[in-house]
Description:
The complex is a heterodimer. Chain A is an alpha/beta fold. Chain A has helices at 48-56, 95-105, 110-123, 139-152, 169-185, 197-203, 237-259; strands at 4-13, 22-32, 37-41, 63-68, 71-72, 80-83, 157-161, 189-194, 206-210, 217-222. Helices cover 36% and strands 23% of the residues of chain A. In chain A, strand 9 (206-210) and strand 10 form a beta hairpin. Chain A is globular. Chain B has one domain: MetI-like (MetI-like fold), CATH 1.10.3720. At the A-B interface, strand 6, helix 2 and helix 4 of A face helix 7 and helix 8 of B.
Amino acid sequence: MSKLLIEGVSRTFAGVRGGQPVKALTPIDLAVAANDFITILGPSGCGKSTLLRIVAGLEAPSEGRVLLDGKAVTRPGPDRGMVFQSYTLFPWLTVGQNIAFGLRERNIAQKERDAIVASYVDLVGLRGFENHWPKQLSGGMQQRTAIARALANDPEILLLDEPFGALDNQTRGLMQELLLGIWERRKKTVLFVTHDIEEAIFMASRVIVMSARPGRVKSDVAIDLPHPRHYTLKTSPEFSGLKARLTEDIRVEAMRTAQGQPAEA
Amino acid sequence: MRPLHPVSPGIRTVLGISFFVLFVAFWAWITLGGHVNRIFLADPLSMLRDGWRLLVEDRFWLDILITIWRVFGGFVLASVVAVPLGIAMGAWKPVEAFLEPFVSFARYLPASAFIPLLILWAGIGELEKLLVIFVGSVFQIILIIAVKVGSTRRDLVEAAYTLGSTNNGIVKRVIMPANAPEIAETLRLVLGWAWTYVIVAELIGSSSGIGYMIINSQSRLATGQIIFGIIVIGLIGLLSDFAFKAFNRWLFPWSLA
Lengths: 265, 257
């Protein structure tokens, strides 16, 4: 059975000031197997973030439904951990308290909480920074904390919305390795939205390419590159082949977006 | 001068102090130099002498204490009512829809115009003084806090929901801490206004306080005392503002650089 089922999910936004309603997503079907690392790749504005927010329960689909372990998603919950592109650490809490936030909301006992927080602090390499305020951290460290915060709840699925989008290129590369390393060690179902082709291939066991708005699944590519993956993989011929193929796919869509044309049905 | 170019701390201090010096020098020049009638404006030296006499002989420090108590009493009263209401209005839109129109209307009612009514209702005792400050501050605080709370970062709220927060958890553990520093800053601002209301309240139907001393001095043409009273108000306001600012900084180390 699939871990996550997206069944005919579409989203239409009401028109602004009596204008035409905007179709962000055409009905999308997607089945995600347990412990798969899925990246959703698409040009800006293709509705990939909207899809992720629907899975998170932060937005309701206009049609269709999302099932996690066979249960319909109706609202956000701790079984679907989320990491946002913007820095969303609570500025009034320290790194340790941020990671403990979800555990506190679920009334986990202090002692157990401390042990869980310590293990995730180690996992993302932030030992020694537990008592720092978010404003004292670099962007990369903030996103590491955000990943630890989402994982500390031990969610069924981890949702990431361009989590490294605001980071510089070098930091982004390191973060990719860190997240992939975590996934390789502790299997987890992951849905990762990005517009970066290299990132999409490097992280994924399966890449879903979305078309320009209104978004739909354009292609579904299994990535059979071996694990553990090392950054040098990005220069291997297999990787380059996949990159060439996805670049072609996404380029057509990006051009459609740029020219304001709707995607072919 | 280059626009927007910062000034060094040393020069900033010197410039700031020099205006005070110029101000007092001008004051001394027009009074001691005989350019204005001494009945209308006392010179700085007699102001200090009058002030000293007030403190030593007329126990003016008791008036000061009474005024301080009124300001803080009225201010605390207003805060206790306004902060929860402001948070509720900001957080829950039906509450806002219910209260916002009335509060917006009420905040334009001048507190000083309520004094005759408040005297009728509460007499000329302490309660009336507290109520003047309360009426003057409470609606302002409610509205400012409601606006701040209403603009809580949505991404923080969403993050909390995905971490398992309930609706009440969002209010208690996201909305309130996220806005606490701004709420404290709002209170600091309104405390400054409370100093204006208290003096107005003490000018009418009062037998103690700094405002009472001022109105009393007017009938005796003691302009030195009046100016001393005004300066005392300014100094206390400045001190309480500094203390409040330091307290906020200590309370919210995460929000300031």
